[in-house]
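For reproducibility, we list the full input for the zinc ion complex.
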Amino acid sequence: MPSYSTASAAAPQPTAHPIQHQERRNLEARSDTGLSLAAPPVVYHPLYSAPVLPPGHRFPMAVFGLIHSQLLSEGVVDPRQVHMPTALPSRDLLRLVHTDDFVDAFCGGRLDQQRVRRIGFGEVVHTQALIDRTLAEVAGTILTAELALEHGLACNAAGGTHHAFPDHGSGFCILNDLALTAQLLLHQGRVKRVLILDLDVHQGDGTAAVFRDQPEVFTLSVHAASNFPARKQASDLDIGLADGTADEEYLGVVAGALHQVLHSFAPDLVLYDAGVDTHLNDALGRLALTDAGLRRRELLVLDSCLGMGVPLAGYVGGGYDADLAVLARRHCWLHRAAGQLWKEHGL
Ligand SMILES: [Zn+2]
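The corresponding predicted structure, in tokenized form, follows.
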């Protein structure tokens, strides 16, 4: 792991890049966030939906912009509490999780064909637009966790790239934003114990591999046992569910596991991957949650953590549907639950 001075560890190292010039308004908005807020902070950046993939690609790149616009149009989010990352993470920061070789090859647009294939974005992965989009998502995930530590609860409009390993990406994930965030905050001494709660329908294999031998991070994955990845990694706690598992059984399993880990591990922070590919109609999922089940899941997870005084940063994770408006609405259950519990917990 690279060494950081105390001063340089205070924040992600910015690189010279155009997005540094954007959104001074949001920097100012952050300066008064010590005050009580009317709604939970939400993190978003237009690069999340950078139009870089060919038409018809399975990864729903446009959905993140739709999540942002739905949240605003439905009044779920206070526009004054939408925060944007203002700098991209440095290569040194990426090396907290990823190998030098992978960081340099990806950021330099020189990934070899084997690693390009595993990511699943094709040759687009070499373009500056996709590189910037990937880095912006990491920056947003870090900012979300920082806001959660400050306010108790914050959600991103993207994030949850849990299939990324130290030396390669996989399954539409290139850099592991959750792992980078946990490592950075641990390195900075801002937290001592992080729970990464992964409820995406696919196992969080990259995250599990990163933290296999690191007791400060607990990885809990509840997923469809028969789904991707075929070769699972060992999380600290894995629960593989049978195809077709529906609301009642699913929610019982999640409630039991989360309760157990919150009490036994006592995290300072929860990073929650709220993938909605657990939905009955998801194109890649094999579980059977209804809209009501998703809503109950988000309320259950947030209420459990906030009820124990543990800050939570929420990330949208995976979700696949040809109808992106429908898909965005599924993802927004996370933010709706955050808005409701923000009030109920008096944050
Ligand atoms: Zn997934």
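The chain has one domain: 38-344. Strands lie at 42-43, 82-83, 153-156, 194-198, 217-224, 237-241, 269-273, 312-315. Both points were considered when choosing residues for closer inspection.
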